[in-house]
């Protein structure tokens, strides 16, 4: 072999090696550089039970996306921390996610309070954020440029329930007993406003808040009994909602209706047994609801977590997939373009309608009113989706 | 009259439960001289022991109570083995119980999950003096009365009970008299754990239980023993009833938030004004 040929051969080998090396390293870099989503989700503390729905739904959604080839040909990665149900810890963790872990996108923590706490950090960092578990409209009363809301605005929560009890059950007086939290206070405030505007003849005869450390619920429910509230609205998160119903029964208070917020959770029916019979609850989604991919989601969630999904799960799953959809539509990780998509798009998700106002607050999503009947949940409102006739509370008249 | 009777009855009903829950804390404090921050976790474990007995054997919730006492007594005995070596050092003891409590809480979160548990039992109401109360308040009151009576008889009339009291009053003198301090500490810690365990079983019926519930009730235990006198079991019983009454009257006339604020205001006030408790015989 001549020297010239040897040199040409060597150069070709080198070029091939370089091309193979760079090609492989490029592929490796593509493979090794996933799109990173971050969130702080309570795995301990008071929100642990509720927040588990957020954690499980994000994991399920991210697994499904990765199984179907990822986003833009890249895998996605979740960085999840435990905020211990504390707002100050959530704030530190979002700083860590954004500035140390350098995540591409964030999702808000569980609850309106923690979401309100971390939103200024997200806005300052100018990173797209979807808040799947915050209903307090005050978060979006000011202009948000990077954070959008998934859950229905709190004014939607009891609206259908109020229509039901006033128009169909003939309720004339209403009492509110509710947890002193950002979400519950906001829901009751908006419901009161709706009641005053639409049904001025219906009187609010009780408005009582209780703290998270409430020791005895019977005295509050005895007050509702004493003022003869025809219907009671309120509760809190799951445990407080159960306590309110249990205490109502245990002081012999039998109004025409009781509606709470976290009633769709299967533990509500399990823990209260026959005392859940006839109790109304607001809900954002139920198994079998005719939304896109609803049945597939319910099936996949059951398979993955061996647990029946309810609306929290559907909302979080929808939030994660909305992010994925935004990235696909934009075709890049351009944060501003993805932000613009999230602010402009009107779409129908697993959870239901999605569309936000100029502040990022949810305006499209409507809520359902469900009732526990025979150990199962039936949709009563809106009437177009009604699956059963309303039954009296605890089998009464 | 209803304005007095209603909160009075509710307060006594609530306070009897507080008395039961806090008496174990007071017993351990009196004998071992440590602030046992694991007490809330014994309460929680008692609730879960009862829950799983009901779940697995469909047992009547009341019948689970004796078993819960035995189970949580045993858990207490095991826990005491860890605490005893450092119990002489109060600061180390408190820190150790703090760590143990966090460990048990998080372990429970793994085993029991974060799900809230309750059982629909005795939820209907009964009427007394025109006030509707939950039927489970009869159970709470009856169990507290029986357990407290048994505890007092045990402490007054049995050799072990007298031994515990002797150790509580003067450990050196008691040892000179042949009382085995180690055994008495072990016994009182187990009993203290068991008492809170019963409270947990009652809370499963009247409220709900979850792995993170301990610290919330620890706050009430503190308030009760500071009111009744640190380490004073009789004081804890009276303190529990008083705290229950404050909450009930506070809720009736003001609001739930105000009621709790008054309770926790009592803690610094009592420590400043009457640090040895209502009967002036606490350990501080």
How would you describe the overall organization of this protein?
The complex is a heterodimer of chains A (397) and B (284). Chain A is an alpha/beta fold and 397 residues long. Chain A is built from twelve helices and 14 strands. In chain A, the strands form three sheets. A seven-stranded mixed β-sheet of chain A has the order 7-6-8-9-10-13-14, sandwiched between helices. In chain A, strands 2-1-3-4-5 form a five-stranded parallel β-sheet, with helices on both faces. Chain A has a two-stranded antiparallel sheet with strand order 11-12. In chain A, strand 8, helix 8 (238-250) and strand 9 form a beta-alpha-beta unit. In chain A, helix 2 (48-67) packs parallel to helix 11 (311-330) and helix 3 runs parallel beside helix 4 (112-125). The longest helix of chain A has 30 residues, at 3-32. The relative contact order of chain A is 0.12. Chain B has 284 residues and is mainly α. Chain B has helices spanning 2-32, 39-57, 61-87, 90-112, 136-157, 159-169, 171-176, 181-206, 214-228, 233-253, 256-273; strands at residues 125-128, 131-134. Chain B has a two-stranded antiparallel ribbon. In chain B, a hairpin with a 2-residue loop joins strand 1 and strand 2 (131-134). The termini of chain B are far apart. The A-B interface holds A 43-46, 48-49, 52, 180, 208-211, 213-216, 218-220, 222, 225, 238-239, 242-243, 246-247, 249-253, 267, 271-275 and B 6-7, 10, 14, 105-106, 109, 113-120, 123-125, 127, 131-136, 207-208, 210-212, 216, 219-220, 247-248, 251-252, 255-257, 260.
Please outline what is shown here.
Helices cover 44% and strands 16% of the residues of chain A. With 397 residues, chain A is an alpha/beta fold. In chain B, strands 1-2 form a two-stranded antiparallel sheet.
């Amino acid at each position: 072999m001549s020297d010239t040929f040897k040199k040409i051969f060597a150069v070709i080998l080198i070029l091939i090696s370089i091309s193979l090396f760079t090609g492989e390293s490029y592929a490796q870099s593509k493979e090794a550089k996933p799109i990173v989503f971050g969130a702080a989700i309570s795995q301990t503390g008071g929100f642990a039970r509720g927040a588990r729905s957020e954690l499980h739904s994000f994991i399920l959604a991210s697994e499904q996306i990765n199984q179907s080839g990822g986003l833009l040909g890249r895998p996605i990665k979740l960085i999840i921390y435990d905020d211990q149900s504390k707002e100050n810890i959530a704030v530190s963790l979002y700083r860590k996610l954004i500035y140390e872990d350098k995540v591409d996108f964030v999702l808000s923590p569980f609850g309106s309070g923690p979401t309100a706490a971390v939103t200024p950090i997200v806005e300052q960092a100018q990173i797209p954020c979807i808040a799947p578990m915050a209903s307090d409209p005050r978060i979006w009363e000011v202009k948000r440029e990077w954070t959008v809301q998934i859950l229905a605005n709190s004014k939607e929560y009891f609206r259908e329930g109020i229509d039901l009890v006033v128009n169909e059950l003939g309720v004339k007086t209403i009492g509110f007993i509710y947890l002193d939290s950002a979400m519950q206070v906001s829901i009751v405030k908006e419901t009161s406003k709706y009641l005053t505007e639409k049904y001025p003849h219906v009187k609010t005869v009780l408005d009582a808040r209780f703290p998270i450390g409430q020791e005895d619920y019977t005295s509050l429910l005895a007050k509702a009994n004493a003022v003869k509230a025809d219907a009671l609205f309120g509760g809190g998160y799951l445990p407080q909602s159960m306590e309110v119903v249990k205490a109502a029964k245990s002081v012999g208070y039998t109004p025409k209706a009781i509606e709470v917020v976290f009633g769709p959770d299967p533990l509500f029916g399990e823990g209260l047994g026959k005392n859940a019979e006839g109790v109304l609850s607001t809900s954002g989604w139920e198994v079998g609801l005719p939304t896109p991919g609803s049945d597939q989601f319910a099936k996949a969630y059951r398979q993955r977590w061996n647990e029946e999904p309810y609306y929290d799960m559907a909302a979080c799953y929808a939030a994660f997939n909305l992010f994925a959809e935004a990235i696909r539509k934009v075709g890049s990780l351009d944060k501003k373009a993805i932000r613009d998509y999230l602010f402009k798009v009107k779409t129908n998700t697993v959870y239901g309608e999605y569309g936000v106002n100029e502040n990022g607050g949810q305006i499209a999503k409507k809520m359902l009113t469900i009732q526990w009947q025979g150990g199962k949940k039936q949709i009563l409102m809106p009437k177009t989706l009604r699956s059963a006739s309303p039954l009296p509370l605890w089998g009464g008249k | 009259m209803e304005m007095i009777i209603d909160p009075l009855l509710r307060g006594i009903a609530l306070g009897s439960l507080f008395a039961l829950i806090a008496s174990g804390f007071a017993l351990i404090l009196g004998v071992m001289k440590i602030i046992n921050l694991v007490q809330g976790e014994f309460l929680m474990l008692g609730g879960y022991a009862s829950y799983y007995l009901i779940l697995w054997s469909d047992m009547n919730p009341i019948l689970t109570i004796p078993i819960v006492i035995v189970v949580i007594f045993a858990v207490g005995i095991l826990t005491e083995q860890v605490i005893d070596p450092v119990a002489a050092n109060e600061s180390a003891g408190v820190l150790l119980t703090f760590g143990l409590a966090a460990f048990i809480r998080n372990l429970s979160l793994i085993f029991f999950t974060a799900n809230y548990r309750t059982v629909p039992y005795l939820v209907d109401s009964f009427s007394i003096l025109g006030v509707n109360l939950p039927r489970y308040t009869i159970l709470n009151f009856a169990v507290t009365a029986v357990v407290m009576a048994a505890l007092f008889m045990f402490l007054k009339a049995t050799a072990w009970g007298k031994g515990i009291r002797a150790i509580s009053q003067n450990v050196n003198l008691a040892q000179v008299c042949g009382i085995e301090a180690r055994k008495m500490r072990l016994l009182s810690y187990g009993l203290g754990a068991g008492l809170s365990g019963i409270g947990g079983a009652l809370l499963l019926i009247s409220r709900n239980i979850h792995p993170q519930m301990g610290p919330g009730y620890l706050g009430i235990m503190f308030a009760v023993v500071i009111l009744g006198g640190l380490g004073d079991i009789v004081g804890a019983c009276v303190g529990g009833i008083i705290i229950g009454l404050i909450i009930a009257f506070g809720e009736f006339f003001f609001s739930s938030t105000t009621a709790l604020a008054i309770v926790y205001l009592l803690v610094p006030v009592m420590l400043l004004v009457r640090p040895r408790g209502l009967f002036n015989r606490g350990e501080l």
